[in-house]
Amino acid sequence: xxxxxxxxxxxxxxxxxxxxxxxxxxxxxxxxxxxxxxxxxxxxxxxxxxxxxxxxxxxxxxxxxxxxxxxxxxxxxxxxxxxxxxxxxxxxxxxxxxxxxxxxxxxxxxxxxxxxxxxxxxxxxxxxxxxxxxxxxxxxxxxxxxxxxxxxxxxxxxxxxxxxxxxxxxxxxxxxxxxxxxxxxxxxxxxxxxxxxxxxxxxxxxxxxxxxxxxxxxxxxxxxxxxxxxxxxxxxxxxxxxxxxxxxxxxxxxxxxxxxxxxxxxxxxxxxxxxxxxxxxxxxxxxxxxxxxxxxxxxxxxxxxxxxxxxxxxxxxxxxxxxxxxxxxxxxxxxxxxxxxxxxxxxxxxxxxxxxxxxxxxxxxxxxxxxxxxxxxxxxxxxxxxxxxxxxxxxxxxxxxxxxxxxxxxxxxxxxxxxxxxxxxxxxxxxxxxxxxxxxxxxxxxxxxxxxxxxxxxxxxxxxxx
Length: 466
Known about the structure:
five-stranded parallel β-sheet
């Protein structure tokens, strides 16, 4: 899920591309923000909040989010009650078979937890089916035919289909299991307080020694955290018990039952929940400010109007000229594909078809790509030729990737800027809120080229002449 600020910003973009009429003119807000301080993302958030000055857009988003979370809370309560009532029904006799109750408590839970772990290892990096998106589709939760409601529903459905939602769904699944186990724990504690139980064990297939050993193994972990568990004598005395047993022995069995539920049920499930929560935070959906709509606004903010009489233009920073080594090269593209397959031949001044000394890594985009690239560079002494497309914005995230590649490239990093050869109007698909001050396609390329010159100059990274 996007953060609330990102959701509002994206909803404003969606509505503006649909020619929606806002309470406040977006163009006026955009012009006023030009002189304010802040990162582009902060200013985009501020712009969306001011456009939604009456809170109508945020209200619709909050209503959908509240209803989704409400469904999750209701389901958790129902699962907790089902666990409580199920165990309450199971423990209606005063003499209970310990292993039968333990299997009813943790048998299916353990199978499902092991199944989730296996499927998680098998489906690493793969998209999984999203049953939750169809179950809690926003179109079922909110009714409305106005533009704002339709756009908000579309925005939420797009978020529910994001690849990072698999961890969100995993966290919710573990939350339901935790609710069930918590209900069982409350039922056990309640019944042990108001009733006195006797615990027995028996088996047709397993030997007595096998069950005694199993009981001792089960009791090891609960005893480590302070639970009182039955010893060898108590285990032997509890075989085929049909009447009341000594209270001290019954308490030992009760301690083992509660300790097993905690240590083999609730704790592993809580660890799985925390793992999914952490992975969801890492894979969380982010606002894509590289979209042409956001880029046009950001470019407008980066223009500065000064008095011609007082203006003294400072020399523009120039990146150092790249020095191409004679050793092995590693080719990589930063975030965007190249329009030409052999984009690197021009930069390296070679038309040779012998690529034995050149390794093509492909596109470097997400964390996994960066991890693979850094691992490769740590093991292979190569010079990296990084192709950067015109679309790539030299923001903090992109420059952080550039710094990491430069620090791991043993024979240095050089950069080749790839021009955008598409028609002038191809990138103007979004609603143009800044038509009055729009630049030509070539002017935009020049501005972006100078931005990269400045970034590479500050890092002393060589630039290949095309």
